[in-house]
Amino acid sequence: MIPLMKNAFLNEFETKKALSDFIMKADRLSMDVKCAEFERAFAAKQGRKEAILFNSGGSANLAMLQALKNMGKLKDGDKIGFSALTWSTNTMPIIQMSMEPIAIDCEPSTLNVMSHHLLDRIKTTKLQALFLTNVLGFTGDIDEVRNICERENIILIEDNCESLGTVLPSGKAGNFSIGASFSFFVAHHMSTIEGGMVCTDDEDFAEMLRICRANGWDRNLTAAQQVKWRKKYNIASEFEAKYTFYDLGFNFRPTEITGFLGLYQLQFLDDNIKTRQANYLKLEKIMLQNDDLVHLKHDHITLLSTFAFPVVCKTPELREKYLAQFAGAGIEIRPMIAGNMQRQPFYHKYAKQMYDLPGSDFLHTNGFYCGNYPELSETDLQTISSCLYKY
Ligand SMILES: Cc1ncc(COP(=O)(O)O)c(C=O)c1O
Fold it and tell me: How high is the pLDDT of residue 18?
């Protein structure tokens, strides 16, 4: 069996041992200095001013929209574009925040929204924001998407939960927008068991995200930020400030275990990403010889930090054939994330407008993926390769 993911952590034994020692010695396990240390280290690694740690990628997504609402940048009823090929908790927060989700199609050869898809949609629909997903470690022509957003006054937000480590000539995936989310769930590039992050260069956004993350209070803000909020609302004493709630929030706090694991796993991240790319390029060589399969484009990407190994067949019938080959070889497989989101039951219940999305439909019916991670052995890679030949 080749599972989607072999271990909870890279260097599992060493990490679990270090975690046990940490737990035994720690005075406090609720959010504290380890979380703050991981935030600083992750922000530096990603090359952003601020990083705010959450208990999951999905909650990071919900908090980003809540924070933009609290700041008055988005409001009820706003139309928010999203990549039609994404994960449920990218799209659900748009609905949960009383905004209107507007699906944007994705290109089968890049798995992503391309600038032409965005241009097509905004011909008829004015968007206030675009919540773009960088899918499975790949991206679209994100520079051009950013240019359009800037020109059209569309707030660009990235869901980078599947693309930690991907680099384009103009920057890292996740650094093209006001803020980007990351996920550290076990199956992702880096695991803290459960966990998520938002990275941003916008200090006001970071401040509001910290308010949203913990109950709407000011406890996790800097001293200067606390003075500002307390002055604005005439909060005269520390006693009163403890239970003063300034704006809408949740309890999306991580624990010190999240912070410790994040810091520990961060030391393996560069090698992890390089191995993911090397695995992908090895398997791609076989895939490129097979004309049953769509050849995925990534020549605009300098470092391809794949989350998984995506396979896109030219027809649904061919997908059946390759699904059977993979299953027969004991390789765990999954659909191409949520496929065309418009086909998901929840979407029908809540969304007003459906669009023609031929690219996402193609990916929905013809795509699937198996795991790609550093622990794949040569034999595992050969087993996967053997399923990619056209027999
Ligand atoms: C694109 C995308 N966004 C959000 C999430 C949610 O992350 P989490 O599982 O940490 O809540 C995922 C999870 O796989 C994802 O793939």
Answer: 98
pLDDT tens-digit map of 160-195: 999 999 999 999 999 999 999 999 999 899 999 999
- Looking from the CA of residue 185, the nearest atom of ligand 1 is 10
In a domain, 6, yes or no: no
How many CB atoms within 10 Å of residue 229?
18
Rounded distance from Cα 196 to ligand 1 centre (Å)? 9
CATH number at residue 20: 3.40.640.10
What does the DSSP 8-state code read for residue 342? G
Let me know whether 276 and 323 are in one domain: yes
Place of tokens 């390789």: 331
Decide which of 216, 246, 266 is a domain's last residue. Answer: 266
- Domain identity same for 45 and 101: yes
What CATH number is attached to the domain comprising 335?
A: 3.90.1150.10
For residue 239, give every residue at least 6 positions away whose Cβ sits within 8 Å of its Cβ, in sequence order, or none. none
pLDDT above 90 (res 282) = yes
| Amino acid identity for residue 253 in this structure | R
Q: What's the gap in Å between 190 CA and the centre of ligand 1?
A: 12
Write out the residue range of the structural domain in which residue 101 sits. 12-266
127 CA to centre of own chain: 21
What is the tally of structural domains in the chain?
Answer: 2
Q: Encode pLDDT of 205-227 as tens digits.
A: 999 999 999 999 999 999 999 99
Q: What does the pLDDT read at residue 320?
A: 98
User: Residue 357 and residue 25: Cα distance in Å, rounded?
Assistant: 54
In a domain, 1, yes or no: no
Residues with CB under 6 A from ligand 1: 56-58, 61, 86-87, 89-90, 133, 159, 161-162, 183, 185, 196
Shared domain check, 290 and 231:
no
Strands 367-371 and 179-183: unpaired
Residue 391: the pLDDT is 80
Q: How many CB atoms sit inside 10 A of residue 79's CB? A: 20
pTM score over 0.85: yes
Q: Among residues of the chain, what percentage have pLDDT more than 90?
A: 99
Structure letter (DSSP) for residue 77: T
Residues 309 and 254 in one domain: no
**Ligand 1, from 133, 183, 252: best to mutate by most atoms within 8 Å of Cβ?**
183
Taking residues 54-67, what's their average pLDDT?
98
